[in-house]
Amino acid sequence: MTERRFQELVLEQKDRLFRYALRIVGNEAEAEDVVQEVFIKLWNQRQYADQIDNLEAWLTTLTRNQSIDKVRSKHRRTEPIDKRFDMKDAQISPHRQTELNETLELVKTWIDELPPKQKEIMHLRDIEGLAYKEIAQMLGLTLDQVKVNLFRARQAIRQKMQQTEKWGLT
């Protein structure tokens, strides 16, 4: 891998890897550290980079492993969704914005309650926009396992949302 290709790859992947690491470690500084460590590993192993079939999947897997290691060493929880996804809109009334914020808090809580695998797959698919096949490669799962876990995660969130609406809590 040339230095130019490495720089291109860093520019292409850094934001996506940062969001993924942030979702796992829950801290911006630690997520930056994780991504930096991933790119250092890539640079140190650049002579083997051409042998990797799917470099994006390899980087995501490495980011996942580094993030999990960091969480295990620090025993931290993930950062709330609302700190990363600003939903403010000048045309939304303050009342509606409050409703949206409350709903977002509920959804965030429900996502955090999901089993780890479901939570991770939901993040990769619904936030990062990765294909099922890419997620399966990254996590070492079959395509069916990815689809089933994502279906179950979405179904759990949907059911909780329906229960909340039924009881008028949003």
According to CATH, what is the topology of the largest domain? Arc Repressor Mutant, subunit A
The SSE order reads: HHHHHHH
How large is the count of helical segments? 7
Oligomerization: single chain
User: C-alpha Rg, in Å?
Assistant: 18 Å
Per the principal axes of the C-alpha atoms, what is the gross shape? globular
CATH homologous superfamily designation of the largest domain: Winged helix-like DNA-binding domain superfamily/Winged helix DNA-binding domain
The level 1 CATH classification of the largest domain is Mainly Alpha
Task: Give the topology, please.
Blueprint: H1 3-25, H2 28-44, H3 55-74, H4 94-113, H5 116-127, H6 132-139, H7 143-166
Walkthrough of the structure:
It contains 7 helices and no strands. Helix 4 (94-113) packs across helix 7 (143-166). The chain has 2 domains: 3-74, RNA polymerase sigma factor, region 2, helix turn helix motif (Rna Polymerase Sigma Factor, Chain: A, Orthogonal Bundle), CATH 1.10.1740.10; 92-166, Arc Repressor Mutant, subunit A (Orthogonal Bundle), CATH 1.10.10.10. 73% of the residues lie in helices and 0% in strands. Residues 75-79 have low confidence and may be disordered. The protein is mainly alpha-helical and 170 residues long. The chain has helices at residues 3-25, 28-44, 55-74, 94-113, 116-127, 132-139, 143-166. It is globular and about 60 Å long.
Describe, in short, the structure shown.
The protein has 170 residues and is mainly α. It has helices at residues 3-25, 28-44, 55-74, 94-113, 116-127, 132-139, 143-166.
